[in-house]
Specification:
heterodimer; A: 336 residues; 75% helix; B: 522 residues; alpha+beta; 4-stranded antiparallel β-sheet; 20 strands
């Protein structure tokens, strides 16, 4: 693996983060609305407002505020939340793992089912299967997540109560926090009951969150496969007398994978930052809801912290996608 | 044979009914409480949001507290109190034998530390928090004196009768000094009080777990545990209640409440709240300076329709600045009836120019006292148009809205008050006196400055005889009515929806209750 390339990309990350920090800092302060005023609400009186503004450091100039923020961030201190007073790092940490667990599960579902549907559609082009899966994909892309989530809860948790409707674990159950990921912690601790319970809790939100990326992946896989299936090397593979499964999976799919990987990477980034709706419907204590609440309360430190983390994740995911390209397609070389 | 049949019948059918009769409180079980959001800070002296208060008051207690279903002040950690003749020293006798959840004793030192940290800049705990809403808590207290282990005195610079109500508010909790020293500025994440429930665990944005305090000084809580579960989506909250996943669901919308009422398994209780939603008329603006125009606007708005359509019946029309659930309410006042003709006459008499366009500011956030501010504004706009007043709806974000209205930049603005300490002073002096009409930062957003009204409020603050205070407040409400600086719109009804397996569910007019006596069928 080209280490020089990776380290160069990681150096770019530092520059990106610096730029993002300035942008977010400025944008937050350009939105109207004063954190102190929002915190005190209807009960605000002028002396208390002034006192709170001083306590929060809002009376200082932007330049001074940014300097303090930058200095603290470089030392790993993201500041304290305006609303809760707790360190932002602690607040983000627990929620980030909850979001990661949900989005990873959703990605897994989207990838497996999306690719399977795409491959089947392409291989059996113009068949009932093709029409059905592409119709479902169209429905998946266009279905409002909010509606779908509520319907799933109504059907599978209220009407026919086979799955739990909210949260990460049944109330009263807990796992020994190690990674913060319920699925993994419960396995490490050998708590198979908790693993099963956590899995059941994960199913509905993960499926809801997976619908849109699953549909996109299915469509991309189909078109990319169709292109590849007509290529000479697929014909050669068949001519060599290879089994149809080997032809499809090893020769066609691998070549059709590049655009799919790009879409998967993009979607993972989106899911990590944009699971707000799903998290809200299923009472999932994730980062998406936290960002929205923080933004509404103009909790500067919290929003700045979250956006920096999103930026890091985005850059890392992109890097990973590029690395996967190299693995998938030997023709791609990183230019040193 | 017959006899045996009877015995068998009793054993099989009657006995279980008696054994599980729902009239006898049972101990045990977990109460699961679904609500719209997570708490923010459980050190209630710093709390600014309802969700923090709901959870915090299960754990922390005050010197005095409001009644279970009323806003009358009763003893809690203080057994009794006296006020000196000059009205400036309040002496509290404290309850003995009470312990904090960490085992340390409750005494005058604990009260001193809990209060002094808020008002005394030199107190070692002062730097550990943002002490908000001083005017509603201890802002008037100038000194705190420990007389002996179980007696404490609060000194004020002038006689201030509403102090007792302030002490009953969530803003004046007593916490363990050991815990405050240990947790410093993170005490809000680890509250340690004397309440019927102990704080156990908090998973942010998910749940807060409380358990029964087995060493509680009073009657011990019935349920073993309370889990406060955040369910942000209202429809999901309703379904959680219907499916029995939660025992209580807060903040359901009116449509959901109708569904809950139809469900045989579920119960709804309601009570008039202490809040008020109003339309403030900026009396400094040339057009609205004329009391005839303000009265015309009062006549032009049909509050009953607003209550029927916007509140879906879950409110009562307001005629005074505070709700009838608070003492001192003037029920003799005849409200401005909905009468567009009369409004037109008044406008004509005032020489109102129909080409004049007034700004009507609509709140961007919904509150219990104003559930759908924009729709309400549109209704009001239509009512005003029908009597010949052109109104333009102005929408701003909440922070800016509050700042600009406190600056007097609006013509008419919608606002409300959640109830504060439920003392009439809080509404009348706080929201309508000349002292609070100073911009910037006016709480009296009508900028109405009536010397007579303000004087009555100040007199009532300095009087400790409740009957005499009531007299002042009755008169003050007459002046308010006559001058019409606001159109008081509604006092919303507060509702609690729960599963019928819960019993003895309390509901105070401000919606904030300890769930100590609630029990759950097993």
């Amino acid at each position: 693996m080209p280490l020089g390339y990776i380290s160069r990309r990681l150096f770019h990350l530092v520059l990106i983060l610096f730029g993002v920090s300035i942008l977010v800092f400025l944008m937050l302060r350009m939105i109207p609305g004063d954190p102190a005023q929002l915190l005190l609400g209807e009960y605000a009186n002028p002396e208390e407002l002034a006192r709170l503004r001083t306590q929060l450091g809002l009376d200082k100039s932007y330049l001074t505020q940014y300097w303090i923020y930058l200095k603290n961030t470089l030392q790993g201190d993201f500041g304290n939340s305006v609303r809760t007073g707790a360190p932002v790092v602690d607040e983000i940490g627990v929620r980030l793992v909850a979001t990661i667990e949900l989005s990873m599960a959703a990605m897994l579902i989207a990838t497996l089912f999306g690719i399977a549907a795409g491959v089947v559609s392409a291989v059996k082009q113009y068949s009932i299967l093709d029409y059905a899966s592409m119709f479902l994909a169209l429905v998946g892309v266009s279905m409002p997540i909010f509606w779908l989530g509520l319907m799933l809860i109504y059907l599978l948790a209220v009407k026919f109560p086979i799955l739990p409707m909210m949260g990460r674990l049944s109330m009263g159950l807990e796992t020994t926090p190690l990674t913060g990921l319920v699925m993994i912690d419960s396995l490490i601790a050998g708590q198979f009951g908790a693993f099963w319970d956590g899995l059941r809790h994960l199913l509905l939100p993960a499926f809801t969150l997976a619908t849109i990326p699953m549909a996109i992946v299915a469509r991309i896989t189909r078109s990319s496969m169709l292109e590849v299936l007509n290529r000479d090397y697929v014909r050669t593979a068949r001519a060599k007398g290879l089994g149809e499964a080997v032809v499809i999976l090893r020769h066609a799919l691998r070549n059709a994978f590049l655009p799919v990987v790009t879409v998967l990477g993009l979607n993972l980034g989106l899911l990590l930052g944009g699971a707000v709706l799903t998290e809200t419907i299923f009472s999932w204590p994730g980062l998406g809801r936290y960002v929205v609440d923080s933004l509404m309360g103009r909790d500067y430190a919290a929003v700045q912290g979250c956006i920096l983390i999103f930026a890091v994740l985005m850059v890392l995911i992109n890097l990973a996608v590029d690395m996967i390209y190299v693995l998938l397609d030997p023709r791609i070389r990183v230019q040193e | 044979m017959k006899k045996w049949c009877v015995v068998l019948f009793v054993i099989v059918f009657i006995w279980p009914l008696l054994a599980f009769s729902s009239d006898n409180p049972v101990t045990g079980g977990t109460l699961i409480w679904g609500r719209g959001g997570d708490s923010v800070n459980l050190d209630l002296a710093q709390a600014t949001d309802g969700e923090s208060i709901k959870a915090g008051i299960q754990v922390l207690e005050n010197l005095v507290i409001f009644g279970k279903d009323s806003m009358d002040v009763e003893p809690q950690l203080a057994e009794s109190w006296t006020v000196s003749d000059d009205g400036m020293t309040w002496t509290f006798k404290l309850r003995k034998g009470v312990r904090f959840h960490d085992g340390t004793p409750f005494n005058a030192k604990a009260v001193y530390d809990s209060f002094a940290r808020i008002i005394d800049k030199s107190h070692p705990f002062h730097g550990y928090g943002k002490w908000v809403y001083l005017s509603l808590s201890l802002g008037q207290v100038s000194e705190i004196k420990v007389i002996d282990d179980y007696t404490i005195a609060l000194l004020t610079q002038k006689p201030y009768a509403p102090l007792l109500n302030n002490l009953a508010l969530w803003l004046c909790p007593i916490l363990s000094p050991k815990a405050m020293a240990e947790h410093k500025d993170q005490i809000g994440l680890h509250p340690v009080g004397t309440g019927p429930f102990k704080f156990v665990k908090w998973v942010k944005d998910d749940q807060i777990i409380l358990e029964r305090n087995a060493d509680y000084w009073g009657e011990k809580a019935k349920v073993d545990k309370i889990i406060l579960k955040s369910i942000p989506e209202p429809s999901a909250r309703l379904m959680a209640l219907q499916s029995g996943t939660v025992d209580i669901a807060d903040d359901l919308d009116p449509d959901s409440i109708t569904l809950v009422k139809k469900d045989a398994k579920l119960a709804v209780i309601d009570r008039p709240s202490v809040n008020v939603g109003y339309l403030a008329l900026n009396t400094e603006k040339p057009v609205l300076k004329d009391v005839r125009v303000r009265r015309a606007i009062s006549h032009a708005i049909d509050k009953e329709t607003i209550i029927k359509t916007i509140f879906q019946g879950l409110a009562i029309a307001a005629k005074n600045p505070f709700a009838p659930s608070i003492w001192g309410y003037n029920d003799a006042i005849e409200p401005y009836e909905f009468n567009p003709e009369k409004a037109k006459e008044l406008l004509e008499a005032a020489g109102f120019d129909q080409n004049e366009e007034l700004e009507l500011w609509a709140m961007p956030v919904s509150r219990a006292y104003m559930p759908e501010p924009v729709k309400t504004a549109e209704l009001i706009q239509a009512y005003l148009a029908s009597v010949g007043i052109k109104a333009k709806i102005v929408r701003l974000d909440w922070g800016t809205y509050l700042k600009k209205t406190a600056n007097g930049e609006h013509d008419m603005c919608m606002l409300g008050w959640l109830g504060g300490n439920a003392d009439p002073d809080n509404f009348l002096y706080g929201l309508l006196s000349a002292d609070t009409a100073k911009t910037p930062g006016a709480a009296n957003v009508a900028l109405w400055k009536s010397a007579e009204f303000t004087e009555l409020c100040l007199k009532a603050q300095r009087t400790f005889d409740k009957d005499e205070r009531i007299k002042y407040y009755l008169k003050a409400q007459e002046i308010f009515h006559d001058e019409a600086p606001w159109v008081p719109i509604a006092h919303s009804t507060i509702v609690r929806c729960y599963n019928k397996r819960l019993h003895d569910v309390p509901l105070r007019p401000n919606g904030l209750n300890s769930f100590q006596m609630v029990w759950k069928e097993q």
